[in-house]
Amino acid sequence: MNQKKHHKTIVLSDIHLGSKWSKAKEATKYLKENTCDTLILCGDIIDGWQLMRGKKAKWKKRHSNFIKLLLDIQHDTKIIYLRGNHDDFLDRILPLQFQNIKIVKDYIHTSNGKRFYVIHGDVFDMVTSRYSWLSKIGDVGYTLLMWVNKYYNNRRLKKGLPYYSLSREVKKRVKASVSYISDYEKHIVEIARKKKCDGVICGHIHHPEKAYYDEILYLNSGDWVESLSALTEDYEGNWEVVMYAQEEKVVEVMKEDKVPEKVKLAI
């Protein structure tokens, strides 16, 4: 049994429960192995777009298990759930708080004397905020890319190779995508600066990142569709991007070689 690791704060986003591409099982396992004082769910936790598309039932037991885990841990963990564009159905009830769970549009996370503006980030995406119809067409194209990703990784699995996000690599190599990510980061950082915050925490673009823009710390928690990533904060206020695949490799190393080594990837 793996030993649990405790953090001051954990940030997850873009789990897309209700989508067949959601790595809900892995996200649930991660939260069972990593506890925290505050859990920030930074939008698109539930994929309302996918749930409404077609007639076939898409909500699976693994999706329910993640929600059940949240209800279990909220007794000891403060949970902040931010509305994303795929779970925009929450607009009708915001803001809402029940027990130790708060559902909001944005949030100020204060830690170690620093202020972080927390938001999903879709409102700073011109396509999503101004042309929602175009965004939904793009969502269909993204689904096709994920189909290719699925079959590619099935072949890798048969060869004994680890999971590799083909769709993420495609986005990294496309110039327009790289430019879009850069513009998104600069825009959202400027908003944090105007709000007199020391940093910004977001999701939305499925691109985990930790970077400084002058004095502003930009943190993106990535996703649990392609990247399988999270943000963690320790009690000294240090932030890291953690890749689930890397954590799993550490478990295998410890089983085989008994090496008590922790691997984290900071981007």
Automatic annotation (TrEMBL):
CDD domains (UniProt xref): MPP_YbbF-LpxH (cd07398)
The organism's place on the tree of life at top rank: Bacteria
Gene Ontology biological-process entries: lipid A biosynthetic process
Residue span, Calcineurin-like phosphoesterase domain: 8-208
SUPFAM superfamilies registered for this protein in UniProt: Metallo-dependent phosphatases
Entry keywords, A to Z: Cell inner membrane, Cell membrane, Manganese, Membrane, Metal-binding
GO molecular function: metal ion binding; UDP-2,3-diacylglucosamine hydrolase activity
InterPro entries per record: Calcineurin-like_PHP, LpxH-like, Metallo-depent_PP-like
GO cellular component: membrane
One Pfam family, short name: Metallophos
PANTHER family for the chain: BLL8164 PROTEIN, UDP-2,3-DIACYLGLUCOSAMINE HYDROLASE-RELATED
Name this polypeptide is given: Calcineurin-like phosphoesterase domain-containing protein
